[in-house]
């Protein structure tokens, strides 16, 4: 890390790394310096002038976001002069800004509102007409709405499209107080990260068309999680409304937002992942289903487990196939392995490969593998990509091995396989979170809870082991897979006896070879590298 | 009789042509510099000359040149600032029209001194006829071998290009000028880094005003000490004063630094129009604080004007007679800064627009007494809080007009009409 | 959508590319060249320049709307730009511009119905020694009086 240097902020002596700015050092030490244009993920612009501070020896106030620290520097952020200046800059920002917070979707998480309460509170002097802008609440992309009247021209969004996505759809046109942030006439945002623009816009100029007016933000609660949309494993916060009925009809989850992790997604996430949250509350499998006389109907969970156990007993392991899912958590996969491989002695346990490599990826975050935990499967089952089976080889394999029981975890099988299964009376068990065609024709369907309803861990594309929590109850009678197999093992009389998620986790960490470096007592919240 | 450096050819027929310029000794200094002098020697003379930048800030030119880092492995650029858009300023235009070769000769010597092989003249877009004249002069210089490869057989190479602006005062600010040559909006950069280290295309760059550069051949010819001896201490040489407004003979007058302001107005410029009385003078371009008539007994050099509470700036002297309504005069200036604000930083963008709305409202007869304080309050809020000095340039006139003519402003706000008209 | 580029303009484009080979530097000279030829900067022109320089049209539009000399709308055959800044105002801008307005029957920012004249107010043109001044399509006219304005405007075809 090299030598640290000494700087004093508001009389407090601090040690800091050379090369950092005043604002960074202040933030690291819990000293708030107000700012709009500065964003840690973007190049410094220094245009909003909110972060002006006093630096001893300088003639004028300096912008904390752009001024690098130097040894012995003495900074003050709380002098009357600084306070007065910040107040006035804020007043400038507000003169042409509508004052209708009650109808603004940003209310509650707006930088103007927040700072006004702390630094503003002036007697308004502006009595003129506000400048007119050309666009009021206009869509500028699939997910993003622009309201130019609210824009404070901090250029965060412009820098994002210029330096992060490099797609350059946004610009600030005209000049002076007629400057307008906009897309090129007749064009729209054309990148796969547009939701981040809404996050970084400090005011209500860029809002989310998906989220707009769905819910006032102060009703929302949140918890940390990992996006399951692809193998990048972007760190996210899940926002949910705890006051609505937590039945499937009432949507609980209203949005995902990225959580900074410099090892993974920096400050961003892609739109596919962000707006992919709906599966948590829509089209969910809530109760077990059993097919009798060609028709599925709901049954009790215990009955379903018994039925599943019967199937396993009736069919010898050689004639059973289990298709793993790379959406399962490590803990779930670990218990799956305990149950099927070590106790039931199943050999035909595979991870289907085809939907893993879609060829759709980019240089920023999006990976080809649209599953969060393919590396988890590899680590726990000790298999390589070349061992993954292809779904179009499945029919042939079922035939060759005279398979009589096919257990599918979440996959969508090809029509020809479904047809073969039906014609040859192969029993089909579907374990999953949401309905698909395969679930709809299965002989037995057992619900499992989605990632957001359970604790767990995934291993991302870069072999980073990341843990996540949950504050949502599983819908219906769904449970995590490790609970399912733990229960099943009791019925089959070789009990695994896991009493809690923690016991699974601990055992897994101590047993899986690749995880030997992980120390649960000292776990880096930004993830730990594992070996595959 | 004053010494003439910059205007010495102005009366000569076809003074803009290379043959005329050469007949009067032109390009001899460039030849001498390249053949007989080391860059360090020239730098030394320029330092000794006490030449201070004529673009407005008055920064010592030799010192500026010495900031260019050596041996970075990157090219060094010279950019000549011919944006000349500060209201009241028109002195560089006269050099471009009447003696473009003196500028080119200065560019050759300067480029050689700072180690540049490529130089740009950034000329405001409106100076279209002047750009054509300058382009012709550059072509003449190429033909004579004063530009291009192997100049004067010394092996030194220099390319000189004109880059035309397109209507933006802010591009006179040196970093906005660089952005503009890079084909972008003229949005001033944050400093540091300074252009001497990170300038055009991220390379070390020197930016100087046209008049500054046009002084260089004479400094090489007569020596730094001679140049320094022309003005008071720390203010070397002569200066072009551009006098405009309510005078009988508006125009450009060259004088040694320290020339008396009242003499300039009454003798050179022929006194106040229609025999009226002097009311006020803006002594250095629209951005500097205004002086009341009784404050005008001063000498025109950087330090004296500063002592009087204003600045010499670009040397543009705007003269106002007793008939001038200060409220309306200020509204012109606010209009200008509001129009020309690049809009990137908050206080300047919002503050100038706000001030214009207030002053226009006062002029429209809808003023209130407290408007004057609000104007002052806004100007103070801009001052010192912006990315570039345009913010200060917009604030200073407001602050000084109100300080010096507050009664007129309050009169207009309360009585809904001008005190003087 | 693409625009017709004359032989002359094509030559100018090549010259500009050779003279200013670095980064986005060709943008301003290209905007000047296209405006000289076509009168104003349309969206098509911006996109064409973006193609030539190899940047997003957003960049070109940022530039073309930032600089006041680039017209983003068509203007009359003669673009009369009267300086309204301090010195010209001290020397009679108000009367001069009123006179032109009346003479042409248009306000500032408007174009005569025959498309011949557009009237604009501009900031200081650097001609204060000849205040009041105006510029018409690049040419300066100073020391304006009503008679002089008549003479100048009447002589324009
Ligand atoms: C808003 C603004 C406009 C300026 N306009 C000009 C100008 O038109 N011409 C000029 O030479 N300098 C202008 N300057 C000063 C330049 O930034 C710079 O200091 C100067 O070109 C340096 O040259 P000098 O040292 O030879 O004076 C301007 C500065 C500001 C802040
Ligand atoms: S839209 Fe938002 S992020 Fe973009 S410039 Fe305006 S305020 Fe900043
Ligand atoms: S990149 Fe992948 S992990 Fe990240 S948000 Fe997108 S889908 Fe989710
Ligand atoms: S945060 Fe420093 S100027 Fe905006």
Q: How would you describe the overall organization of this protein?
A:
- The complex is a heterotrimer of chains A (532), B (421) and C (157).
- Chain A has 532 residues and is α+β, with helices and mostly antiparallel strands.
- Helices cover 25% and strands 18% of the residues of chain A.
- Chain A has three domains: 5-93, Ubiquitin-like (UB roll); 101-208, Alpha-Beta Plaits, CATH 3.30.70; 289-529, Rossmann fold (3-Layer(aba) Sandwich).
- In chain A, strands 15-14-20-19-18-16-17 form a seven-stranded mixed β-sheet.
- Chain A starts with a strand and ends with a strand.
- The relative contact order of chain A is 0.09.
- In chain B, the strands form three sheets. Chain B has a five-stranded mixed β-sheet with strand order 3-4-2-1-5, sandwiched between helices. A five-stranded mixed β-sheet of chain B has the order 7-6-12-9-10, with helices on one face. A two-stranded antiparallel ribbon of chain B has the order 8-11.
- The model of chain B has no long low-confidence stretch (mean pLDDT 97).
- Chain B folds into three domains: 18-229, Rossmann fold, CATH 3.40.50; 238-321, Ubiquitin-like (UB roll); 326-415, NADH-ubiquinone oxidoreductase 51kDa subunit, iron-sulphur binding domain (de novo design (two linked rop proteins)), CATH 1.20.1440.230.
- The radius of gyration of chain B is 22 Å and the shape is globular.
- Chain C has 157 residues and is of the alpha+beta class.
- Chain C has two domains: 7-66, Arc Repressor Mutant, subunit A (Orthogonal Bundle); 78-155, Glutaredoxin (3-Layer(aba) Sandwich), CATH 3.40.30.
- Chain C is built from seven helices and four strands.
- Chain C has helices at residues 7-19, 27-38, 43-53, 57-66, 86-90, 93-104, 146-155; strands spanning 78-83, 117-122, 134-136, 139-141.
- At the B-C interface, strand 4, strand 6, strand 12 and helix 14 of B face helix 2, helix 4 and helix 5 of C.
- Bound molecules: flavin mononucleotide, iron/sulfur cluster (2 copies) and FE2/S2 (inorganic) cluster.
- Flavin mononucleotide is lined by residues 53-57, 59, 61, 64, 81, 83-86, 169-170, 172-174, 207-209, 212, 388-390, 393 of chain B.
- Flavin mononucleotide binds next to helix 4, strand 5 and helix 17 of chain B.
